[in-house]
Design brief:
4 copies of one chain form a homotetramer.
Chain A (H helix, E strand, L loop, with lengths): L1 E8 L16 H14 L5 H6 L2 E2 L2 E8 L8 E8 L7 E9 L5 E10 L1 E2 L4 E2 L4 H8 L3
């Protein structure tokens, strides 16, 4: 299992007139969490793209429990709890505020895509080998 | 049933380095679609807030079929196909590009919140009355 | 002279907790206005990139007079009032709300960049020829 | 003089299809830098608003020298080099990438606004007192 914790502070520009961190901003927070989870495997997502593999999102779901507010410190907990299935890989999320209150939970599915062919491909061996060390 | 169609053109700042409209941008597109769906009821979301009711999102899920690209004209089809349940209201989405290709489908659940009390409340009567005319 | 008027409605996600359209959002509004100004020349910015020319921004300045609020209809008036100088082209801006109140004024300078060489180049002839028709 | 250094990593959602951090994203980076500069005074911008003072931006100018790319670590250097003039305060900026290359320089002017009266006011004494310690 991979578990990464990333801290992000809510920016003013990320709030909306309700005073909440806008519901759409978590897509970015989750993306940042995902990248930090991958770094635990020994490579950055930038490296992944440099090797000719893109990883677009195919499914994204989020349940909001509590809002985050301006200047809150949000901890994004990103978990990879299962090995990729074919071309797909799954990330689970929990966000907490500085009082350790659960803000939201979510799940994101990404697909491995051959950049040159623009086609889904099985998770690359070099990716799986690093990931397997954690399972 | 309420069905609203809203056209949005993908902005340069909404693309990412894959050349796709960033996966997180659809939260805004869906929000715009939602607002247009409400306008068919005879009021704007701005009016709703002015009446002391906030409508934060509690659940958001989206499945991506195809990416949108820069300068694409995206049609957001927003549907309210059932009456609110207690404090909750449900919006369903489909996005299409200018070639009528399905880009993604999604569902958003919002909760009616009494602004002064910061508590969920049943959908207001004036909201339900307008909505009922479409069912 | 080229003058383009583009209407944009302030999205909820573009507001901040002051209730203003976030000061950073006008970079996108100006970008949209710029693209519409170019369309009056007979091509889209997408076409420009397809011909191997990128147009990144080198200078951007904006003066805010009044805020825009959620659901306001903002008119972006984009003007090209002088021919490009070497590799540089200049866009001037005024934004108004639905009450015709001036929200802000600005100026953006872009540079023509050869995509393959990643070097500034003089404005392409096909661009200048179309532009000259308006001067 | 106040000088704050803030590190930010370019998010995927902040890139555009040129592969650059979108030119509009620096408004947020500068905002984050500004907040960190204020923290050196012993209060957060959140505190400022809680005391009934808003600080909207009146002028913003930025000159881009080099783009930042995805996953770059950007250092925002924020400087307050002069005392506020009446209701106005000035922040100067320089952004660098991880190779210490200058990415852009900028200047932001904010106005102190009485939240209740919605009117510009002279910089509050408690603000000036803390600031003076650095001059």
């Amino acid at each position: 299992m991979i578990k990464a914790k990333t801290k992000l502070r809510v920016r003013y520009g990320e709030t909306d007139q309700m005073g909440y961190a806008y519901y759409g901003v978590y897509a970015q927070y989750y993306e940042v969490g995902r990248v930090e989870a991958m770094r635990l495997l020994g490579f950055s997502y930038k490296d992944v793209e440099a090797r000719g593999v893109l990883m677009p999102v195919t499914d994204y779901a989020i349940s909001y429990k509590k809002p985050a507010y301006y200047d809150d410190e949000v901890t994004v907990v990103t978990t990879i709890s299962e090995m990729p299935k074919g071309a797909r890989i799954f990330f689970n999320y929990e966000c907490f505020n500085q009082n350790n209150e659960l803000l939201n939970t979510g799940k994101v599915t990404l697909v491995f895509l051959d950049k040159a062919k623009n086609k889904p491909v099985a998770a690359p061996d070099w990716f799986l080998q690093e990931l397997l060390k954690h399972f």
